[in-house]
Structures are given as structure tokens and as C-alpha cells.
Recover the amino acids of this structure.
């Protein structure tokens, strides 16, 4: 064989080998790139398990915004027990409710502030209620005028209704919210206030 032709064939074989190696390397890089490319977040609104603790949605905002005036009214009701309630059990229950819900209001207000949302202002009682279980102005005036056994009966009846509304609101947060701390607070509200409802029903039954 002519030496020039032999050399040309060797060069051609080398080129083919080099091209094959290059193609293989390119495919390998493409595969690695596909593995390293982050996938789109399947929970863009913070609903996934890896969501930031600060992530929240409209349900979280509504929970905080509505539970604040709801709790504030509960504190108004418990304040009335001092000097009006005849039963030590009712007075003690009122104190326990205030002890739990006061700090919860501070927590709820803090979330709204951190989210750049407005904290509800002073509550004005009216005949129409957005939040479940809220008392009307007439309810609050009637409770304020009652004394002794009449106050105890009215307080228990109205606070049971008030608690039932809070439990409903907390249940909505548990189902629709995404903010971990808010959902945890909702679970605590359901647990605590359900137990208090049972206590108040027993106290009411004991008065019959």
C-alpha cells in the first residue's frame, strides 16, 4: 500500500474516534445538566412540606384578621365576669379564657404586621356579624347589665356560642391555610375551646 494513502486512512480513523468521543461527552454533560436543573416548585404558593415558615396565603390572612376581633370580644366578655359572676367556676373559667386569648391576639397581630397587612382596629359591635359566634351590641349590653346567677347563665350561653364560632374559624384555617404556625394555633384553638365548651355545658346543666 502506498504510504500516503495509509497515513490518510489512519488520520480519518482518528477523526472518527475523536468525533465519537466528543459526542459521548456531550450526551453525558446533557444528562448531568438535566439532573442538576432544579424542577419547578410543585407548591408555588407555599403549600408544600418545604415551604418557608413565613409563607402564607389568603386563608392565613383572613384567619388572623378575623380572629383578632373575635378574641378581643371574648376578652370584653371575660372582663365583665369580675364583679358580676356569682359562681367561682364561671369566674375561674373567664380568667382562663383571658389568659389564653390575650397572648394569641399579640401573636396574630405580629403575623399581620410581618406580612405587611393591616391589623384590625377597635371593634364596633353591630347587628351584622361576619365572624361566626360574635355577639351583637344588644348581647353585650344585656351581659353587662346582668348580675349574679343571671350573669352566669348569660355568660355561659353566649360564650358557648362564641367558642363554637372560633372553632369553626380555626377549622377553616386548618383546611385551607399554609402558614405552619397559624395552622398550629388553629389546632390549639380547636382543642382548647372544644374542651371549654364541654366545661361550660356541664356548668350550664348544673344550673338547671
Amino acid at each position: 500500500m502506498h504510504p500516503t494513502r495509509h497515513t490518510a486512512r489512519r488520520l480519518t480513523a482518528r477523526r472518527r474516534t475523536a468525533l465519537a468521543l466528543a459526542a459521548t461527552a456531550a450526551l453525558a454533560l446533557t444528562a448531568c445538566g438535566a439532573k442538576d436543573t432544579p424542577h419547578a416548585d410543585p407548591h408555588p404558593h407555599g403549600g408544600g412540606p418545604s415551604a418557608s415558615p413565613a409563607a402564607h396565603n389568603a386563608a392565613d390572612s383572613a384567619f388572623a384578621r378575623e380572629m383578632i376581633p373575635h378574641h378581643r370580644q371574648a376578652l370584653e366578655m371575660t372582663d365583665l365576669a369580675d364583679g358580676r359572676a356569682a359562681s367561682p367556676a364561671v369566674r375561674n373559667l373567664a380568667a382562663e379564657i383571658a389568659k389564653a386569648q390575650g397572648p394569641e391576639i399579640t401573636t396574630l397581630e405580629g403575623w399581620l404586621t410581618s406580612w405587611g397587612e393591616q391589623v384590625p382596629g377597635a371593634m364596633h359591635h353591630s347587628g351584622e356579624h361576619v365572624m361566626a359566634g360574635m355577639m351583637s351590641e344588644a348581647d353585650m349590653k344585656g351581659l353587662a347589665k346582668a348580675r349574679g346567677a343571671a350573669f352566669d347563665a348569660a355568660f355561659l350561653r353566649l360564650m358557648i356560642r362564641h367558642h363554637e364560632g372560633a372553632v369553626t374559624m380555626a377549622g377553616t384555617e386548618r383546611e385551607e391555610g399554609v402558614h405552619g404556625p397559624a395552622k398550629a394555633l388553629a389546632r390549639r384553638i380547636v382543642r382548647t375551646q372544644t374542651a371549654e365548651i364541654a366545661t361550660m355545658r356541664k356548668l350550664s346543666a348544673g344550673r338547671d
Remarks:
- The chain has one domain: 58-207.
- The mean pLDDT is 81.
